[in-house]
What does this fold into?
Amino acid sequence: MTRLFAACLVLVGTTIGALAASGKQTAPEGSFEGAPSQYTRFSVAELERGFLALAFGSDLRIGARPLGIRRFDHPIRVRVIAGGTVDRGFVMSRVIQEYAHAVPTLGLSEAWSASDADVELHLIDEKDFQSALQSAFGKKIAQTFVARTDPQCMTSVKSSSDGKIESAVSFIIVDKGDDVFLDCAYHELLHAFGLSNHDAGNPWTTLNQNRMVGYLSVYDRSLLTLLYDPHITPGMTRRQVRAVLAPTIIELGLATPAEGQ
It folds into this structure.
C-alpha cells in the first residue's frame, strides 16, 4: 500500500493511552481495496482528545499565530476543478455529497463558478503538483512547504484573525491509484473545513499520516460535527473549547455511554 503524505497550510490575518473504542466494522462500500476497518463507538475522552489535537495547529503557518478555532461561519460552497489524466470529477462530487449528508451543519453544496466558491479542489497529476503549488502560492512558500512536509496532496486555508475561514484551496493527485486519490479527497476536505492539524498518535482519524483510510470515518464525522455545532464558534481558545466540549459530545450523542448509564 502506498504511504500517503498530506499537509495543510494555514494562512492567518501524546500518544493515546488506554484505548476503549469499540464497534469495529469493515470499510464502507465504495472504499478502495484493502481499506482499513473502523471503530464506530468512542468515549467522551477519546473524542475530546482528537478534537483538541486536530482543530488547533497546522503543519506550516504563515502570518500571525492563530489563537483559536478556525471554521466557516456560513454555508460552504465547493468547486471541483477537474484535470489530470484520470477523470475523478464524478467521484469527487460524490465525496462532497457524502460530507453534505453526514454533516448537515456544514451547509455544503457544489459551486459552479470561481466567484461562488469558498473551497476550490484542484484535481491534478502528480507531475504537476509542485508547479501548481508554485503558481498558487509563489515559489518560496511552495518550496518551504514541500521541504517541510513532502506532501502528496495539500490544502491551504486562509482565515481572518477572528478565526473565520475566508477560503480554502486543495490540490489532489488523481493518477496514483484509487487509494491515494480517495485518501487525499477525504483527508483534504477535513482540512478545508477547519480540522487543520495531523495526529500521528491517533489510530482512528484520517488525519494520521501513518495510515490511509479513504472514506469518511465515524470518528472524523464526529469531530466535524463537533466543529460545526453552535457551541463551537470561530476564534474560541483551547480553554474555552475545553469548557463546552464534553457536554456538547454528550448532548449530540456522539460518545458511547459509560457503563452503568
About this structure: The chain has seven helices and seven strands. Confidence is low (pLDDT under 50) at residues 1-5, 12-18. Residues 178-193 form the longest helix (16 residues).
